[in-house]
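User:
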Amino acid sequence: DDASRVRDDTRTVNARMNSPQRALKRQREEEARTVTSEASKDAARVATLKALKLKTVVRESHGASATTHCEYAHGTSKCWNLFATCGGELVTIYDDEHFGDHVSVVAQYANAS
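Assistant: Predicted structure:
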């Protein structure tokens, strides 16, 4: 059944998370329980954005002036650590889990038109 599959997927993702990730996830879940009104949701969003710290900078090699799309593999238990960017004629897929604080390129595809 779908509910048990989701529980199993969640357990798999949680088992792969390192201790800091688990601690942050618990903290976010606790914060989400305390946010009830629209005003407190807005305040929580502002506080979250103010607390962001730059961890990794990725220099795209697609040659376009901007990355046009970024997509994360949310909801897929086997690929939860992957994300992809699109720009110009290239799509690049990254892994943000297996190299510590670093992001690595898994694959890059070019439009061969």
